[in-house]
Amino acid sequence: MRLSSAWLAIGVCLFWHPNDLIQAANILGVFPFHYGSPFLVVRPLIQALVQRGHNVTLITPEGMPPDIKGVRHIRVSKLNKRMQVLIETDQILGFLSNKWMEAMLAATMYFNMCQDILSDDGVQGMLKDDREQFDLIMMDASNLDALYGLVEYYNATLIGITSISVNWYTEELAGNPAPSIYEPISQIGYSRDTSILSRIYNWIHINEERLLEHLVVLPAQLRVFKKFFGYSEQKFYELRNRFSLILVNNHFSVGRVRSNVPNLIEVGGLHLSESPEPCGEELKKFMDEAENGVIYFSMGLDIMVKFLPENLQQTLVKSFAKVKQRIVWKNEFFNMPNKSENIYVIEKAPQRDVLAHPNVRLFITNGGLLSVMEAVDSGVPMLGLPVFFDQFGNLKWGQSAGMAEVLDISNLNAETLTNTIHELIENPSYSLRAKKMSKTFKDRPMSPLDTAVWWTEYALRNRDISRIRLNVEEIPLFHYYKIDIILTFASRFGLIAASVIFLGSVFFRKCVTGDIRNRMYFNFSIK
Known about the structure:
Elements: H1 2-15, E1 26-30, H2 36-51, E2 55-60, E3 71-75, H3 77-88, H4 99-119, H5 121-128, E4 136-140, H6 149-154, E5 157-162, H7 168-174, H8 196-229, H9 233-239, E6 243-248, E7 264-266, H10 281-288, E8 294-298, H11 310-322, E9 326-330, E10 343-346, H12 351-355, E11 360-365, H13 369-378, E12 382-384, H14 391-400, E13 404-406, H15 414-426, H16 428-442, H17 448-461, H18 477-480, H19 483-526
Parallel strand pairs: 1-2, 1-4, 2-3, 4-5, 5-6, 6-7, 8-9, 8-11, 9-10, 11-12, 12-13
């Protein structure tokens, strides 16, 4: 018996690692968006947490994402119906007009999302069940402020996940006051020029968004918060500062370098940890036999071709007919008029496997962050046709990095599109730069998934967030901008300048007075 116990002890010492024994936690995830990108980022992390023994409950729309093994799903059907109404009434096209329409539509959507979730029978049943306890709540780091009441209700740790690039709002939630590197929520009208006038305009642009946030979005969220939780306004604003950490779908190699506080964790490429969907035999053969290469065109998971204006659709068709490459087009219109023979239409493309094909020469994209990362991962140049939100910034980065060109989709013509395609394919610098960026993007000490899991469990182990979160209240604006130092320096400089001026004036007056006296004495002597 003692011998067997000794062997057991030796085995434990050899194969046990402290991080392997982590107490199972009850985790609640709230992800209300009825489009695919957030779930592509979240799903690998949820699956990994389940495999590590954690109990996960997800509040999501019906069917989005598909059921994950080992996860309890609470489906909110109102989220599906609300999105269907937007599509049927063409309200979603408001995104394409201007930043104000974009912001007002987003504010309405966030308000409805929070209300639909908290009024759902399944969610209400969970809230009324005294046996329900959660150690950690994770949610999209966006305008879901009313849902922060869940954090207080369960006395849980809060972490955020964002599938888009970092903007000023994410920085605010993380407690990262860095106005010099703020990015807007809406990129419509935002300038990438570095001139003084552009910087002033961008400052106004972001402060317009802040104004809308405080006058429209937060008051609406506060009403929902009070209605369902009954907490005070003070508690509402206090909970907005309770994020232990935020996992951001970002990496320094695919954007501007940022001065992040410790609780902003870069996990860009998290969705790439899952195995890509393989190409079908027909599509694979079409690409294998492309002697002049392949161009892949997709406007992402959420923009269907039927939403594009008819003249834009025909511009694309005319341009594609002029190039010698074969085109793989993600398109729900299989019988599109005037379609040339070099076009392969597919409704749901296995994008990662297509981009990884050796014959792919160019990716024409609207610039969603996941698509940009997949292009970088595969080392494929891009031609950007951004439409809304972060797509402009994602593609402008690719352009500045030398692996992309960007065109205005609202003023696109076949000649410009064709010439740009030729330039991107025939100029080898774009391909070389894309391959170099791919190596940089992949060169990391830990995979994005391992990083996300480690920090999630770190938040569970360490509820005291004061060590990793900057307390903005301890850094008043007066001290943050070092106004006290500036004023001290200005006072000293002013005192010295005033002394010099005073002494100079005294000296000058003495000289003048002495000169006058000498003249008077001289005149008197002559007389």
